[in-house]
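Database export, one record per block. Field names are fixed; values are copied verbatim from the stored entry.
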Amino acid sequence: MSVFSRLGIVFMRTLAHVPLPLVRGFGTVLGHVLHAVAGSRRRVVDANLALCFPAKVPSERRRIARETFVYVAQSWLDRSWLWHAPEETVAARLQVKGSPREIDEIANGKEPMILFAPHFYGLDAAATALTMHTARPSTTIYTTQRDPMVDEWIREGRKRFGNVITLNRVDGIKPIIAGLRKGGLLYLLPDMDFGRDQTVFVPFYGVPAATVPSLSRFARLGRAKVVPIVSKLTPTGYEIEVLPAWQDFPTEDVVADTALMNQRLQGYIDTMPSQYYWVHRRFKTRPEGAAPVY
């Protein structure tokens, strides 16, 4: 396994110096191949889209499914230049736009802040774009990879620019809250199904979805404001939109806060449904007595 991992990392380091249109073209071909051969994952995408977009005709859902596989491949190959290309190349391909107040506060502020970063395919690009321009400590939570070499490569890539602290999910909440209370940033991606433990069922496109209520809890415990970050893959790189901070969030009602998070996330997804992470089994944990969907 380590031999293949080493070769893969060497390939990504080499790909970092290939012009972006060629990288994206390779990603397009690879994405179509994956859509054709990865049957089990394609069925997950199809099930997710059928649940979340029942009003769309089947041909439209099939188009979104094909596109999402292309974005999977392109965004993965883009990690080559995000993590290995010269800094000026990376900076030229990442455009940050949106709320001037929040952009300035991310870079120069001292208040605790949670960056709510849903699972769009540009999430790593967004993290890089923001940490390139701030010296504030920025914490991110990640899942350990099975191969230690790949795990180290991913962690180092995400720590390439800025003052980034990577925590594993098993590290608990204490270092997360401590970092926030010291005026740090938390790059949080809570919109996945992590199982039944410590989750609440709230609607996601009208379907009960096991959702970690960490955004509400971390915001309350860390006394932090929540700023949404929406990342979009574009022909020239990535566009990262920093939206205004949520007002009157969090409240004392964790379940209501988490439902609101999903509701607002739906609005972001509706603007570019193909770029959301539909390859994840978002509804694998079901309410008691409910039939499985995969």
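Remark 1: The CA atoms of residues 114 and 196 lie 24 Å apart.
Remark 2: The chain is about 50% helix and 15% strand.
End of record.
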